[in-house]
Write the structure tokens for this entry.
Amino acid sequence: MRQYQKKTCLETLSVLQDAHAEVVRFATECQNAEAAMLLEQCQQAAISVGTMIDQAEGDGTGEVHLLEAYCEQIYLFHEDLQNGASVDALQRKEQLDQLLQQASGGIAHRLPTSREVVFLPYKASMWDSLESVWREASADPDTTVRVIPIPYYDKNPDGSFQKLHYEGDQFPKEVTVTHYMDYPLAQHHPEVIYIHNPYDEANHITSVHPAFYSAKLREMTEELIYIPYFILGEIDPHNSLALEGAEKFIALPGVVNAHRVIVQSENWRQAYINVMIKHAGEDTRALWEEKITVGESPKLNRVRHLEESDYFLPEEWQRLTEKPDGSRKKIILYNTGITALLENNDRMLDKISRVLAFFKENSDEVTLLWRPHPLTGATLNAMRPQLQERYRQLVDSYQAEAWGIYDDSPDLPRAIAVSDAYYGDHSSLVQLYQETGKPIMIQNVYV
């Protein structure tokens, strides 16, 4: 029997015992019609519990036999009330209570329990924000785990939906993917759902399909858990300017609707609490203090265990990283983010152009591995359409000349593992790269 089913059964039987007291009150006040109607409702509820147990465990369980005996006693009590016979309502209540207590005990302690845990990533490149949690859940023999990539839309400048994307075919081979059309969430009602996208309709660039907005997901599970897909530098939770800057990562639908939010540090936990209290009021402090918890980031966990030997480089990459004498060139991971592009516009494109020219000139000694943020194209489409064509020309030219590596795959850990140093924008990738101990240099658009 599933955990949520057991919980539902036990909660229903508990409500029935409370209803028995009301039946006694109606009977002693000679309100036999009301007492009889309430008994009918009790019987229907008991039948629904018995049906749920039959469907989960098969016919013939002792708990169902107890519920059948309960329904028989309900029927006799109901008939006596309908016929105006003299009844000892308290004695009948004790009989009904005893049968329900026995059934409840059997459900709670005898029936085995399983659970379903569902992961709902939307971009394959962000899977590392959930991966270690998925591995841990998969190791539990009493847990059925599903990875269900959900579709998402690019957005137009006016906020309307554009192209629908689905990346279920881009996940690592060891991850068994279930198509979202093959798993009706409401019907399965998994015990736990994990998400890494908190934005829902609040993102200007992309939107997961509205069927998977967090408010809807919350109604389909016992516990909706949000783990951010990004890693941020540490914050002073008492610095008002820092908190104001962090609000765009915190005051979001996923944080509001999740039953639990797992953040990277105690400082960030307090920052989340402070921001949400600012928006929702001091009287909500206890809610946020319970909801926001600290846990090891799956992204950091993945990077800490990276080994270059774990990755087989594509043949084209190998060709670009070998010198004529067979020795290996240094590989520089060049990361271009979204924030710097939105803040600097054409100046940022000038910078990228100069960087590419420099590394092309030195490509005999160093291999550039350019990995732009996976949402760069969608961001330009939604927020800087005037930059789209020039950016696309930079990318097309770089790929056509083929002197460096262009990595738009979902496998970020591979790029971190095989590179010798980081160069690029100050983004959440910097926080991950620090874990490797390799050199890091932040590019300056004015230099």
Notes: The chain has three domains: 3-109, 115-301, 310-442.
